[in-house]
Give the backbone structure.
Amino acid sequence: MDLGIAGKWALVCGASKGLGRGCAQALVREGVNLVINAREPGVLQQTATELLAAGDESAGATGQKHAKPQVLCAPADITTPEGRAAVFGVPGGPGRAFDIVVTNAGGPPPGDFRDWGREAWLQALDANMLTPIELMRATVDGMAERGFGRIVNITSSAVKAPIDILGLSNGARSGLTGFVAGAARSRLAARGVTINNLLPGKFDTDRLAATLTAQAERSARTLPEVRAAHMAQIPAGRFGTPQEFGAICAFLCSVHAGYITGQNWLADGGAYPGVH
Ligand SMILES: NC(=O)c1ccc[n+]([C@@H]2O[C@H](COP(=O)([O-])OP(=O)(O)OC[C@H]3O[C@@H](n4cnc5c(N)ncnc54)[C@H](OP(=O)(O)O)[C@@H]3O)[C@@H](O)[C@H]2O)c1
């Protein structure tokens, strides 16, 4: 299936690794021009080089040949106003005139809510609620004027099934989820702009590896034992891959997904047991 988005411009945040990178890769394969963002410039540049190679082969899933896409780097902390200004000001980029925006940043640390004061909460809200809202505020009206726009927010399965030690994430991402439910149904929906959240369960990324390594160290189990124990709780029997995640994101960004908005898409190998 040709996703119909070749030549469009996408901003993918947190794109040097993991799920953001998976989204960037799936989009560049469809011939989408990218501005990719992460804080560490060297890793980001290396990712851009690899994405460009993927874009060179950008035959799309159906073998359609697209024009060679551009991949521009915007190394910055996306959770700061300066970082967002840098992303919108990247030389050769589209300014704020993105057609597709994938919001993403690191998740807040785990812990006990008794230890978190106002500063910890403000940081979590900045990263996982207010930054995506600021990115939408900067881009959606231009998308509506041009009659096409796609926002995909990477959130978490914890929005549907909150995890006790992830209180900062549960709270901040639930705030974003509530905001999106309203904003997606505003005047944007009739003007070609969709806003959806993509909720990862357990995906094999550096972040998951760090979490599981810490668990192994605390529990006197080996890392393979800890990984196996987590996989055993997932009906699919495995962790997801960033490539799978990126493919879902690319579909939500496609011309075919114009009638899907305000939704929370869970990708968790069946781990969430409920029907809603
Ligand atoms: N993987 C999972 O199983 C899973 C499950 C549920 C939720 N999530 C959520 O999904 C998101 C992505 O997770 P992941 O597993 O892909 O993490 P990851 O492998 O650690 O990758 C995170 C990416 O975001 C970038 N980043 C982090 N903070 C940033 C910031 N302030 N500004 C710009 N870029 C930033 C990182 O690069 P730099 O460090 O160089 O900035 C990196 O490119 C996180 O919010 C995570 O909480 C993941």
